[in-house]
């Protein structure tokens, strides 16, 4: 379970153990940088700990929730913000809890600052797989958090080292399969 949590944290913006509330303003700005301005303007912002527990930093009004990285001043070093719609956040909560996501709820996420993952094939990975020299670097992208949509997308799936500059499926053939679509 902890491995699954660590991998989700890495994939979904490195949102572990954020510093004290004194940095709330920087955390909010960093979190909102993950989404387009029109979405960020009305999004809630939460801080998430390593167990998936959330602390609200800002209320929202549009159904989107943004999460800052561990250190808002260090975006880019395996440390990225993310924004999720209602079902995207539900997907993330299910991942943390070790539950299969609801197949009838399609989640969406923006990661306009980019992201990373230990593995493209194993959602529970918490270290580099044997033979892999580096984590998976993902440029700015959107994610469709729905295993059915990912599996029928026709995009590459199951590759240990995907071309992350083109759409691909991460965690293919698992309940946590997601479609990643680069936007640059």
What would you say about this model in short?
The chain has one domain (2-182). Helices cover 22% and strands 22% of the residues. The protein contains 5 helices and 10 strands.
Structure commentary:
This protein is an alpha+beta fold and 184 residues long. The chain has one domain. It has five helices and ten strands, in the order αααββββαββββαββ. It has helices at residues 2-11, 24-32, 37-40, 86-97, 147-151; strands at residues 44-48, 54-58, 65-67, 82-84, 107-111, 115-117, 136-138, 141-145, 168-170, 178-182. The strands form two sheets. It has an eight-stranded mixed beta sheet. The longest helix is centred in the middle third of the chain and has 12 residues, at 86-97. 46% of the residues are buried.
Outline the biggest β-sheet. 8 strands, mixed
Q: Which regions have little confidence, pLDDT < 50, spanning 5+ residues? A: 1-19
How large is the radius of gyration? 15 Å
- Counting helices, strands and paired strands, the structural category is alpha+beta
How much strand content do the residues show?
Answer: 15-25%
SSE succession: HHHEEEEHEEEEHEE
Structural shape: globular
What is the average per-residue confidence, as pLDDT, rounded to a whole number? 86
In DSSP terms (H or I, runs of 4 or more residues), the helix count works out at 5
Query: What is the strand tally?
Result: 10
Strand adjacency order, main sheet: 2-1-3-4-5-8-10-9
Distance between the termini: 34 Å
* Percent in helix: 10-25%
Number of separate domains: 1
